[in-house]
């Protein structure tokens, strides 16, 4: 599949309440998490990057001024949950996107894993990376599922509902990349992984 047809939605609208500070601005590999994510997605030759902001949007927007290839949108309803940000992100993705990554700002994954996923998206409805028999992130959805992304709701389990609906067409891709399991909800999650792999 032509990676030039890939799009990505980077979700950065949440409160970061369990972390106690904005997760998007935590240091990672000599940058902030949001900068690292943007650059890795771009290095994977993803054509279109839609960044969804909400809480502290102005502060996060100021960090991204050096990137001129982004589509930055705001979710004024971010208090309603992640599904509201996915819907707004999907509504700003091009209709001809061949694949759509759903990336969370607190789940950094390097470009080589994103590229490997892009290369495998042909007939599958979605690709979910797997490391040591554990499912990770991000999920790469086929562009044909854009309408499904536009319809996600918190009360129907968000993305899990789409994965369930297309269960027979999901590819679980084995990768040698433990970062697909990173999930920085609390300070201890971040500090553990920072010491193991996040240092510059």
TrEMBL record:
<dbReference type="GO" id="GO:0061602">
    <property type="term" value="F:molybdenum cofactor cytidylyltransferase activity"/>
</dbReference>
<keyword id="KW-0808">Transferase</keyword>
<protein>
    <submittedName>
        <fullName>Molybdenum cofactor cytidylyltransferase</fullName>
        <ecNumber>2.7.7.76</ecNumber>
    </submittedName>
</protein>
<dbReference type="InterPro" id="IPR025877">
    <property type="entry name" value="MobA-like_NTP_Trfase"/>
</dbReference>
<keyword id="KW-0548">Nucleotidyltransferase</keyword>
<dbReference type="InterPro" id="IPR029044">
    <property type="entry name" value="Nucleotide-diphossugar_trans"/>
</dbReference>
<feature type="domain" description="MobA-like NTP transferase">
    <location>
        <begin position="8"/>
        <end position="166"/>
    </location>
</feature>
<dbReference type="Pfam" id="PF12804">
    <property type="entry name" value="NTP_transf_3"/>
</dbReference>
């Amino acid at each position: 599949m032509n990676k030039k047809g890939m799009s990505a939605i980077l979700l950065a609208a949440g409160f970061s309440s369990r972390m106690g500070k904005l997760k998007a601005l935590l240091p990672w590999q000599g940058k902030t998490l949001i900068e690292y994510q943007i650059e890795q997605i771009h290095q994977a030759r993803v054509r279109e990057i839609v960044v969804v902001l909400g809480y502290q949007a102005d502060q996060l927007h100021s960090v991204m001024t050096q990137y001129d290839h982004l589509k930055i949108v705001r979710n004024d309803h971010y208090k309603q949950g992640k599904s509201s940000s996915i819907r707004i992100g999907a509504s700003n993705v091009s209709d001809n996107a061949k694949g759509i990554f759903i990336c969370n700002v607190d789940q950094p994954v390097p470009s080589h894993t994103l590229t490997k996923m892009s290369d495998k998206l042909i007939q599958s409805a979605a690709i979910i990376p797997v490391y040591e028999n554990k499912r990770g992130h991000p999920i790469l959805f086929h562009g044909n599922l854009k309408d499904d992304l536009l319809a996600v709701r918190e009360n129907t389990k968000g993305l899990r509902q789409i994965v369930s609906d297309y269960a027979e067409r999901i590819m679980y891709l084995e990768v040698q990349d433990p970062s697909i399991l990173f999930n920085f909800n609390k300070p201890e999650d971040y500090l553990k992984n920072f010491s193991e792999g996040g240092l510059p």
